[in-house]
Design brief:
The structure is a homotetramer. An eight-stranded parallel beta barrel of chain A has the order 7-8-9-10-11-12-13-14, surrounded by seven helices. In chain A, strands 2-3-1-4 form a four-stranded antiparallel sheet. The first copy, chain A, has a two-stranded antiparallel sheet with strand order 5-6. Chain A is of the alpha/beta class.
């Protein structure tokens, strides 16, 4: 439930509210919206409902009303946090990445880091074209144990080199609790891939560190399950989460997955978190990346994550779905033209 | 297979090509593209491959080359008809509807015709807001035999009255071979609904008359099946077909269906037919209609089919997914602003 | 709603109940169960709720109580008809086909009738192996207009010849309202295929004639939609309906469709109609037919519809999913062994 | 590729084959089938194809022929290991659990361990009814962070107590690499749940220890992806893997998931690993457990995993899908009657 404080409430009144919540074994979460201050009453122990009584709270001075939270996710939902979360990353002397609250951020780069040369060349092209962050996998989750599994820590070092070179923030995936600390040293944003959307120990681990997290939708997850996965991260203390729609598995056979763009306005209605779209993995087809990127922006997305590679046909992973740097630059031009009509500001 | 004629071929040479094709028991289909004339060699009898030899054809004078058609659909595919089909309807003294070739047509109206007053009021609002055709069901396919099944011929007369009043072309559904002639008297475009996408006798019946056909994708059909359904219509002689993406059935539970917008560029790559989108039936949610309409345009759609109702809450059918006339007008404004950046001309 | 009559009610009391129902514009449907007589109150006019008041009915003499029907289907649901419907066909001097109420009926034969020789040879093998009805398509719904569309009336005559020869009841598909009367002259059971499960005019047409109807589940239909399609048939007066599970479309790529065997007990719980399974079209793989047939029986199915062909590799349609007559006979032996443990009696 | 040794080959010849494989940087995997000895040539380093030449191998003495492996999984596929793997667990003085090779093993118990009393009571009922292993979750993956997450190590101790009491082998889930060693101390079989089917570090961790692994199919995974997940485990050295079909996510809304029983014969054709079925999580409905269990056995499954709880309605997790101990015993009787006709031996 949410405690809505009266306008002009006294600091001591808020403290009393918090004290009551804590006393009854719940966690208070304070949220400041434009015209109101809200206090969420959150269960502290999984499986045990807190004992805070709405009547006791509503009779406290300074409290305007008590509002129930109907959805199973509390921290990532709009009711407790009506305003958009804006994820903003400013690497030193670098390119500012922003997503949410009207800002449109573009993360681009290869599926996998293959060499320092490849990642630095791509990063330069991404920056030149107006991209605002660099992606590249160092730990790669692969369907087969015989496939290339990424360059691991060497790959992280190459990403860091590309960041030094271009000022672009670095987004990279973690597969395992044990990789979180190491990766957080090198990268700005930790990505949780689709296969790990319900890997709860991993969600908790990225929730206990402070870098923003990019959480990809599971390939068969409902939006409620997706938001509950984000809730796992937020529940551990990290509110900086970017949701990424990347297509769901259906019977359709012309694309790798079915990109479900209606998830953008639905997620934005239910949650304050920014929502970006990955048109590359979802479609698996280079020629669909541009129209699906435009469609995502027009539907209100807060950004994109695009696979771009200097030489797609030589890519070690997912060659058929990456676009080359020229196509990426053309798409960026396209999106900049579309942005005003779509009500979006370019991230930087 | 396709016979590509040489530039500057002689008329008699083309006639020889046609004669050879007919002699061997196949159907020649002539297609004039910007810089070339093509002759498709089409099987005449279902289940029997024609006996036309590519070698015999390629040795004829005036023939440049023979190109195989790899897809199972021939007439609706791009190879035989490289240029966009533009569906253009010009009711006398009325509003020109165009879809395809850069034109963006908007069909709007209620799910079901309920009264002359309702349909005329809606038609006026649609016209005022810039819509270019009117939709409304007179024969309604309903999941339950106990649900309202439409006003039938009375409904058709009301649609015709709305057309007289506003000049808008009328789009309405047929459910059965026996309704085709009657409906074609009153309506400009015959709609085949999702449930009937593979009702082959019905496809053949609308293929044997001359009104344009709006073919909705089956709720679980692949794009190849969708184009083969269109091929049934074209094979009977009617080339004026509008394809309509309306969502597919998946596990997603926030929307009625999953709107698959990547089908737009895929269908446009494979086929010359215009592709429009129905954001109303696909999502089943009024608040998703605007963002999905914008996304469809940005993805390259040739038009939209939108449920608008003067008083959605009083609608006898699908109340929750219609928008009112004010919301429709606001959406039209939005789309007009977006059109230049999306490379679309307004239909009229 | 359902009127439950008291034990030992008077005939005149039942007549009063019926009179009241009819007077208020509804249709009474009488159903005799083992220990009770039930009268369903059914809407007469689609889209208009009847005006029968439960209070008025419950105050009539002879009435024990009024029970609401919660599901949208009324006539095919268990509440109004608690006992199993048994479909029983006895061709003159022929093989009795039974499905429902513990009887297990096996329909087998080729996908399409190709020649009299082929269908008679198959029918003999089916009969010899213990099959109780013959299937074969004369009107074939095909995804492509260029595929073989069946032998039409000639095919129906061949099926009739096979029936004369073997005494097996004949099951064949109708695609169109206009084929219903002709087909009913030749065949014992009219099949509605998956693509036509929601072709309402066709459902109404087979509902207005008296041959049993085999209704296949739409490839993406929910069980509620499936039962409502059966309700369309029953609403027109034909209560003899066999439901056929034939797989649903999913992302699975090892089989043509995903055979969903849990539909058997669910449909049997909700409806009194017999439920059979088509392991051939659902899997599309010959080696899966035997295990899926056994599984269907063990799950409680009332029968099977199997594709068998004397020479599968020469079949004009669906060659890869038919089994030959030897494999069919072996499967029948297998099923006869399994029947007692599965609580099923062989149909004949 | 697979090296097939000649009958009566010399030990030294086999050693030469192995030496050549190792010399060229690949891993030899020896497999003894009834009439032949096979040596698989397996890539050693992910992403790098080994350099072993088939010609070099086939020219060695004692080698009959070289057979390619066409599927992406090598170790879990039938070609390299034609005979069924039988998983056999014999707790000291306990109940022998067997699955595969004609044996049918039944694992039953509550979703979550709730108390020592609950788990011991259930274990006794499972043993009495003829079940051959006990399941119970100590670490529970839950969609919401606010749900009960299991009793963790305390739960493991309770499972061990139930094993001491009844002699039943214990199956329990691990969620994280860090839980593997601890859990392996207490449990006989480590379960990988659906959500973790592609958690590759976890698969590798259970592959590096020696307890059998029960791998549940991901809720949206293809069978190829499922077998590749098993390959991850086998590739680390643990060949004792039980595959568990537990339903896939589709549009069906009467059940929690769609149980796809055709996966049983398909997996058994492609792989030598035993395949069991979970009718509880897949359907989510108590009344479907018995018919789906019978169907699974009739389709050839090697066992079942069933949720049974002494008092389902008081269960803290998944109450609606568990059956009570009486229903479980009745089902066991049913299955024992069915087993001979289904060609299965009871596990013990």
């Amino acid at each position: 439930m949410i405690v809505v404080m009266k306008r002009g409430f006294q600091r001591a009144e808020l403290e009393d509210v918090i004290a009551l919540i804590e006393e009854k074994g719940a966690r208070p979460m304070i949220s400041h919206a434009e015209h109101s201050t809200l206090v969420g009453v959150i269960d502290k122990t999984p499986g045990e409902k807190h004992g805070v009584s709405p009547d006791a709270l509503s009779s406290l001075p300074g409290v305007e009303k008590i509002v129930p939270i109907e959805e199973p996710y509390k921290l990532v939902g709009r009711p407790l946090h009506p305003e958009d979360t804006v994820i903003c990353i400013e690497p030193e002397n670098g390119v500012r990445f922003q997503a949410g609250g009207g800002y449109f951020g573009v993360i681009a780069g290869p599926c996998a880091v293959e060499s320092e040369e490849q990642i630095v060349e791509t990063a330069r092209a991404v920056r030149l074209a107006g991209g605002t962050a660099l992606r590249g996998g160092a730990f790669k989750p692969r369907t087969s144990p015989y496939s290339f599994q990424g360059l691991k820590e060497e790959g992280l070092k190459m990403l860091a080199a590309a960041r030094r070179e271009t000022g672009l923030a670095v987004v990279t995936e973690v597969l395992c609790v044990n990789q979180v600390d190491l990766t957080a040293e090198y990268a700005d944003v930790l990505q949780i891939g689709s296969r790990n959307m319900q890997n709860y120990p991993l969600l908790e681990a990225v929730g206990r560190q402070s870098n923003p997290v990019l959480l990809k939708r599971g390939l068969c997850s409902t939006l409620s399950e997706f938001l509950l996965a984000a809730e796992y991260i937020a529940y551990q203390g990290n509110p900086n989460i970017i949701l990424c729609e990347r297509g769901v598995r259906t019977f359709e056979d012309d694309t790798r997955f079915t990109l479900s763009l209606s998830s953008i306005p639905i997620l934005q209605k239910k949650s304050h978190l920014p929502v970006i779209v990955d048109p590359s993995h979802s479609t698996g087809c280079d020629y669909l990346i541009a129209p699906m990127s435009r469609a995502a922006m027009a539907a209100g997305a807060d950004g994109l994550m695009i696979e771009a590679h200097p030489h797609p046909s030589q890519s070690r992973v997912d060659a058929e779905q990456a676009i080359d740097c020229g196509a990426f630059a053309a798409l960026m031009d396209d999106l900049r033209r579309l942005a005003p009509a779509a009500g979006k500001r370019w991230s930087e």
